[in-house]
Amino acid sequence: IEHWHAYLGDPTFADAILDRIVHAAHKLALKGESMRKKATA
Q1: Can you give the pLDDT at residue 7?
Q2: Could you tell me which residue ranges the IstB-like ATP-binding domain spans (predicted)?
Q3: Between 40 and 14, where is the model more confident?
Q4: Could you give the number of structural domains in the chain?
Q5: CA-wise closest residue to 16 among 27, 4, 26
Q6: Which of 4, 21, 22, 35 is the most buried (most CB within 10 A)?
């Protein structure tokens, strides 16, 4: 999401898409180490 505007090229279009995604999203705060780190080590 950090580079969303550059990826899509049109900031207005990118904002519209993000607004629709984030509006209906459930945010989860996760704690602890990443499981991916353990899998790749």
Answers
A1: 87
A2: 2-39
A3: 14
A4: 1
A5: 4
A6: 4
Calculate mean pLDDT across residues 24-38.
Answer: 82
* 17 Cβ contact partners less than 8 Å away, ≥ 6 residues apart: 4, 8
What single-letter DSSP state applies at residue 9? Answer: S
List pLDDT tens digits, range 10-26. Answer: 889 888 988 888 888 88
31 backbone dihedrals φ, ψ, rounded to 5°: -120, 160
N-term to C-term CA, the chain: 26
**pLDDT score, position 1:** 65
Distances 35 to 17, 26, 27 between C-alpha atoms, Å:
29, 21, 19
Distance CA 30, CA 40 (A): 20
